[in-house]
């Protein structure tokens, strides 16, 4: 791949704004399991190898099992995820594939399972990882 733009060097203020959002996410009440499931699944949907590599490693460090990490891409057919985790994964997919919109069914299911603050934190985490995926893919960051 040819050399591509390095956003932190060219637009450091914008990059810092994204970093600040990531710092906010790290202070939320979301469990590390929920954060990493969101980050892994969105990165899988987007095809971001750099972020998949990073967040599967982070999930392992947080105690996530290999089985659950492997099954994240096929979570609907796996019995290893809780009802709450399935709601988060469904919402993650629909927000990531936003051109299909977020269905009332998926949104209301998540709203039923989580209070408003936690739901807001879930949505902001999904939006943030999608931004990182787009930055990594566009600028050619590679998994090593």
Automatic annotation (TrEMBL):
Fetch the Pfam families from UniProt.
CMD
Q: Which residues form the signal peptide?
A: none
User: What is the originating organism of this protein?
Assistant: Flavobacterium calami
Q: What is this protein's record name?
A: Carboxymuconolactone decarboxylase family protein
Q: Where is the Carboxymuconolactone decarboxylase-like domain?
A: 12-93
SUPFAM superfamilies, per database record: AhpD-like (SSF69118)
């Amino acid at each position: 791949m040819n050399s591509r733009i390095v956003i932190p060097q060219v637009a450091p203020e914008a990059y810092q704004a994204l970093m600040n959002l990531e710092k906010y996410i790290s202070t939320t009440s979301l469990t590390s399991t929920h954060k990493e499931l969101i980050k892994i699944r969105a990165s899988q949907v987007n095809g971001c190898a750099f972020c998949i590599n990073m967040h599967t490693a982070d999930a392992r460090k947080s105690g996530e099992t290999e089985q659950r990490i492997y099954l994240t891409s096929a979570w609907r057919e796996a019995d290893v995820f809780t009802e709450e985790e399935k709601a988060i994964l469904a919402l993650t997919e629909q927000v990531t594939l936003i051109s299909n919109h977020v269905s009332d069914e998926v949104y209301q299911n998540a709203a039923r399972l989580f209070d408003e603050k936690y739901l807001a934190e879930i949505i902001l985490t999904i939006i943030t990882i999608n931004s990182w995926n787009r930055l990594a893919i566009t600028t050619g960051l590679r998994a090593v």
